[in-house]
Amino acid sequence: MSRSRSFATAGVALAIASFVACSEPGSTGVTSNTSASLDRAGFDQAGAHRQYGAAQQVGNGTVRTYIVTDQKNGGRPLEVGVALSEQALEGLPAPVESTDPMANMHMYTLELPARNPTQYKFVQFDWNPKGHEPDSVYTYAHFDFHFYTVPVEVRNSILPSDPQYAAKAANYPAPEYRAPFYLDAATAANAPAAAVTIPMMGLHWLDVRSPELQKLTGNPAGYRPFTKTFIYGTWDGQFIFDEPMITRAYILEKKTATDPSVVDEVVPVPTAQKYSPAGFYPSAYRITWDAQQKEYRIALTQLSWKE
User: Fold this and answer.
1) Per-residue pLDDT tens over the stretch 174-211
2) Rounded distance, CA 150 to CA 88, Å?
3) Given 104, 108, 132, 193, which is the most exposed site by the fewest CB atoms within 10 A?
């Protein structure tokens, strides 16, 4: 989530707090985000095969996509992700003082491997050295990993100059396509969807249980500074991207951690009842350091067919 707008802070606390209260009666709606390695797809699973997409230079290293497939099960996809070489997190563009919000956003469009059995079309990878609004929530240096289910041309068409921009932004997917605990940015901000939809990106949906949002939910005791979160994005009646958003510092910690469940962290995510288009969707995302390959990986994992 980035570019020139995300969602305004005004009105967020009341909207999110109300949503949490209605989501799970009898509780705050906040659950632990503690995670554990739930599988080893692409590491030591028999029959797993990883193929990479074309590499691009980032920092002092490279970034590229990859897909892990199960060769013992007809090439079924197990994981789709982004691999950052060991030096890619060094030598990144530094923050600059500018009134142009795009001056502190560095975007890369990454092609997926040629043999791609998933519904994902490409990955938009962003480096945000100053983070972005809301202040004191996501104003930390971090990366965005947008896995899009629509072609680049559709992403590029999300522009305010489109006469149907407001209508398409406000065209929400039906409830059965929405993951539990997720609130759209427009409702959170009590604003028209077009006002908070990010051009060339989409309307963002946030998990209201996320620790970094808890000061806004009326649960300050549950607040923790932002390290990682998982976002969904919509446009014109459809969810169009899945997005792990993770700080640089949090990714770097994987390299020096000694606990295997920290080095290779798998974080469950809420899932919807129905999906469109049908395809292989994740029930978790992975943040890991592979000492043998000397690369960090951020991935959608535990893929299963959903429709």
Assistant:
1) 999 999 999 999 999 999 999 999 999 999 999 999 99
2) 27
3) 108
Residue whose C-alpha is closest to residue 194's, from 158, 220, 232, 145:
158
Q: Is 2 within 8 Å of 246 (Cβ atoms)? A: no
Q: Distances in Å between the alpha carbon of 157 and those of 106, 137, 232?
A: 19, 29, 19
Q: What angle do CA 54, 127, 96 make, to 5 degrees?
A: 135
Pair of tokens at residue 74: 């007809």
By three-state DSSP, how is residue 192 classified? coil
Tell me the HSE value of 50 on the side-chain side, using a 13 A CA sphere.
19
Under 8 Å CB-to-CB from 240, ≥6 apart: which residues?
Answer: 148, 149, 150, 154, 155, 202, 233, 234
Backbone angles phi, psi at 106, to 5 degrees: -120, 115
| Residue 40 backbone phi and psi in degrees, to 5 | -125, 35
* C-beta separation of 7 from 237 below 8 A: no
Q: Evaluate whether 39 touches 32 at the Cβ level (below 8 Å).
A: no
Segments making up each domain of the chain, as ranges? 12-306
First to last CA, the chain: 26
User: Within 13 Å, how many C-alpha atoms sit on residue 214's CB side?
Assistant: 19
Q: Which residue has the tokens 């005004």?
A: 10
Give the C-alpha separation, 210 to 204, whole Å: 14
| CA nearest to 179, candidates 266, 282, 277 | 282
Return the number of other C-beta atoms located less than 10 Å from residue 7's C-beta.
28
pLDDT (tens digit per residue) in 107-166: 999 999 999 999 999 999 999 999 887 888 999 999 999 999 999 999 999 999 999 999
